[in-house]
Amino acid sequence: MTRLLHTSDWHLGQIWNGRSRKQELAAFLNWLLERLKKHSIDVLIVAGDIFDTGTPSPEAQTLYYRFLQQVSSVCRATVITAGNHDSPYFLDAPKILLRELNIHVVGLAGQPEDEIIVVNDSNHEPIMIVAAVPFLRDRDIRMSEAGESAEEKENQSIAGIRRHYEQVCNAAEEIRRNRSIPLVVTGHLFVAGGKTSERVREIHVGTLGQLGNDLFPNEIDYLALGHLHVPQTVAGLENRRYSGSPIPMSFGEAGQEKIVLQVDFDGRTPTIQPIPIPAFSKIVRIEGNLEEIRRKLNDTKNNAATSSVTTTTTPEIVTEATEITETTMETFVEVIYTGTQPEPDLIRKIDEIVSETKEKIDIVRVRCDPIMTSTPIRTATPEKLEDLDPVLIFERLLENVQKNEEPGNDEQKKALVLAYKEILDHCLSTKY
User: Fold this and answer.
1) For residue 252, what is the enclosing H or E element?
2) CATH of domain 2-276
3) SS3 of residue 292 by DSSP
4) What is the reported pTM?
5) Of 88, 113, 281, 354, which sees the most CB atoms within 10 A?
6) What is the pLDDT of residues 343-371, one digit of tens each?
7) pLDDT digits 0-9 by tens, 288-321
């Protein structure tokens, strides 16, 4: 039997409205390392979005490299692929050195054979083939041609993604031949029908956001996907899955169970077991008028006093982060005011309620949804620039321009948004 663990979307270095998530992410890495040791995992797969940005902070890099140092002596192989948040150049930079530690990194998409990893047992016999496909950027899969319409660009991109998966699976089959060893394929993309959360940024426009399950060849024994933060199967198929993010990355993920996926192979047949991840913080969304907010905040304070999670710390991994226990577990709160009347002192009143408790309650964001559509106020900013997707900002600016000038047709707008995404993608991938 060969045992694999599938995880993704760590987003190391995430800053949440000025609050670092380092303590939670460090606790997760501790828990993950202990899981790998205790259950004798042969292969660890991290399917993209290792970091939250293409230029991760020194502390995020410290968490990453110290974890890799530890895991290198635990698993036969660790496979890491780039996501749309990652700089492929940054991830690829130490890949030759990491390979000596049985850590295989694929940042940039390349030739199919460059993405194939053969995992051997102690007798140097192959026990698994991993096709490590990273996030596929437009320039990785097609050549731009002058005069292309937006629809033609989309169709060419879909064809390019399909072709890449066919080629990499063909290369894996050349190695596997008729041996009964599993083929595991990774990906970081949005498959049609997937459940999303607020945090997930759309990668593509038009039909590219609706890539079908038929994109992937039938030879795949297990498909390990990243990008969507909600754990789920693809098209109802048990062996094609998103693992989801290990901690809530937005308030839209509040109350959502986080998991990693353990996959045991008997020959090529997988048995899949979702493994719940302990909560390392509490994420709460509170809605209502002022009195309802006051009552719910008091309830949250009482719950915070009884919440607990205990993790085993590994000092080599957790740097400048203490063990999370029932006395240190933090509660992050989003308050959505839905009252019919403006509350000019809303933020001050909320702060007063929270300051009455000694529990660790952090008001991350305050929103006034109904007032935003009727009476413009600026007491509690409903949106912050750093929270918005750059493409959404571009679309809003485009709409404002069209209000003041002769409006363009939908095809022109679609083409402009697609061109902007290509430029943004190029800038993000070459930022490091």
Assistant:
1) none
2) 3.60.21.10
3) helix
4) 0.79
5) 88
6) 888 888 888 877 766 566 788 888 886 54
7) 888 888 888 888 767 765 544 444 444 444 444 4
